[in-house]
Amino acid sequence: MKTNFKKLVVMLGIVLGFTLSAGAIIMGWGYIAESEMHSFQENCSAIPNAYVKTDGKEYVVDGVLSYYGACVCRVGYTYNEAQKACVVMGE
What are the TM regions of this chain, as residue ranges (predicted)? Predict the structure, then answer.
């Protein structure tokens, strides 16, 4: 019984680790000023299979309304620097 439980925990850990790393981050997490958000979204959407992800909150950073977010690849894709695109994992 304990052996099966250990195997289950290890398997779940591997799956969870893969899931968390599945969305590759292209442009690192950081604060994006509201005035720059449109430009940031355009630059991110120009990358195939990428989108802007935020934490859904607004912040005031140095007196400027900002959002905390990043440009990330869709699940199952990873960023390829040479192609400047999100490609299917394993390619």
Answer: 9-32
Query: Is a pLDDT exceeding 50 seen at residue 19?
Result: no
Token code pair at residue 63: 């007196």
Tokens of 15: 């799956």
Instruction: State the burial class of residue 1 (Cβ atoms within 10 Å of its Cβ: 0-12, 13-18, 19+).
Output: exposed
Domains identified in the chain, total number: 1
Q: Which domain, by its residues, includes 69?
A: 2-88
Number of H helices, E strands in the chain: 2, 5
Question: Torsions phi, psi of 32, nearest 5?
Answer: -115, 120
Q: How far apart are the C-alpha atoms of 11 and 66, rounded to whole Å?
A: 39
**Rounded to an integer, what distance in angstroms lies between the CA atom of residue 60 and that of residue 63?**
6
Residue-wise pLDDT tens digits, 54-74: 998 999 999 999 999 999 999
